[in-house]
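Need a sequence for this fold. Nothing fancy.
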């Protein structure tokens, strides 16, 4: 049944309009008419026809001009237009095509030909309308999903944030117990040490998640002060003492000779070191070693820190992906990968790049370990000093 399909017939001659109407109405179409181009333009916006049969030769505004107007307007662009013409010249057909016409009919109009053309264009229009409706639905769902995602992110942020205080209390209590381990019975000393390590791991994860959020929202700016990498690394290494001993992993640390102080945010860079060292210990087999080296590279205007392990290494295809928090989801889903939550290196990259440094992985091939390297500039760039002065801090 075609009754819901509306066709607008545009022709300056009453006789032609009546003829087309007489053919279309019995086919089940709702027919409206216009006797000039401007009248047609006026009707179309409100009528929203499913198809337009358009005469070419009309005074005032010809069919080409009407067609161009319809096809140039976003809201009427998809309405199919059939040019009805007594003209047979190729040039006119070309001109009609250029104006955006979808098909042609020659006068005098043949009923069968009219029926075929109209049906086929209306079918295409129905597909287009369905497609458009689906786009609309998808866009709406997308918007809803985006807002749900944002709510979920905010909720997760709140939960993670609220975990940090009780966690700090537990860690503090356990550290007190560990300090008095001599008074603890039997194996409890070792147990408490293990619990302190686990708490620190969870705390690191919480901090990574919170900082990645902040950096994403550009709320975390490094608070840089001249600092010594040696002192900072010594502190981090001592935090991993128990863990390394448990795994019988020796941490070799070659203190950088003559490495000057560099502008750094000690809290952030300590956590970069902690993440790299944690990974190195995690992925190094028991009994092997992890090496840390700091190098002063005055020619490049930077210092370079290297954390080398003797684990299984990492295939080159992952060398970039592991620094990307979105890629981590895929990596974690791929078979045989184990580890933490996959945000550690994403955090490291954000933190190092916020210092205008670089971070990368050198892997020495299958079974020959990984070396994670990062650089920090020896002096702050002018741009970064200005940015720090404009936005003094948000941590
Ligand atoms: N030293 C390493 N040797 C081999 N693979 C590594 C090493 N360090 C990181 N990776 C790989 O890179 C991935 C990403 O490391 P990242 O530190 O970001 O996450 P994670 O350690 O899995 O979890 P998180 O640090 O959040 O607890 C790891 O899951 C692991 O597959
Ligand atoms: Mg990690």
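Here you go.
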């Amino acid at each position: 049944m075609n009754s819901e399909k509306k066709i607008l017939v545009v022709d300056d001659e009453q006789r032609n309009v009546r003829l087309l109407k007489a053919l279309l109405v019995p086919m089940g179409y709702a027919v409206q008419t216009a006797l000039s181009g401007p009248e047609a333009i006026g009707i179309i916006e409100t009528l929203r026809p499913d198809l337009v049969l358009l005469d070419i030769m009309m005074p005032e505004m010809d069919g080409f001009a009407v067609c161009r107007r319809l096809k140039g307007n976003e809201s009427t662009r998809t309405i199919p237009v059939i040019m009805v013409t007594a003209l047979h010249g190729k040039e006119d057909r070309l001109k009609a095509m250029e104006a955006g016409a979808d098909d042609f009919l020659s006068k005098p109009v043949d009923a069968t030909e009219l029926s075929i053309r109209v049906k086929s264009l209306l079918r295409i229009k129905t597909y287009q309308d369905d497609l458009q409706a689906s786009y609309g639905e998808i866009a709406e769902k997308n918007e809803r999903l985006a807002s749900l995602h944002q709510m979920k992110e905010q909720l997760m942020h709140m939960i993670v944030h609220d975990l940090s205080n009780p966690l700090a209390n537990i860690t503090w209590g356990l550290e007190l117990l560990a300090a008095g381990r001599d008074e603890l019975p039997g194996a409890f000393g070792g147990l408490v040490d293990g619990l302190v390590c686990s708490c620190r791991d969870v705390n690191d994860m919480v901090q990574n998640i919170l900082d990645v959020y902040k950096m994403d929202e550009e709320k975390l700016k490094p608070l840089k002060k001249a600092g010594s990498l040696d002192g900072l690394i010594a502190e981090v290494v001592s935090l991993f003492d128990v863990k390394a001993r448990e795994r019988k992993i020796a941490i070799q640390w070659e203190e950088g000779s003559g490495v000057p102080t560099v502008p750094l945010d000690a809290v952030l860079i300590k956590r970069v070191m902690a993440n790299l060292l944690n990974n190195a210990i995690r992925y190094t087999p028991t009994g092997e070693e992890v090496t840390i080296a700091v190098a002063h590279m005055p020619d490049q205007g930077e210092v370079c820190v290297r954390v080398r392990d003797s684990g299984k290494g990492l295939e080159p295809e992952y060398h970039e992906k592991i620094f990307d928090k979105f890629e981590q989801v895929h990596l974690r889903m791929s078979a045989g990968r184990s580890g933490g939550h996959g945000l550690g290196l994403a955090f490291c990259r954000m933190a190092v790049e916020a210092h205008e440094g670089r971070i990368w992985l050198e892997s020495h091939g299958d079974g020959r370990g990984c070396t994670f390297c990062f650089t920090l500039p020896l002096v702050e760039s002018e741009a970064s000093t200005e940015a720090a002065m404009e936005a003094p801090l948000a941590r």
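For context: The two ends are 67 Å apart (CA to CA).
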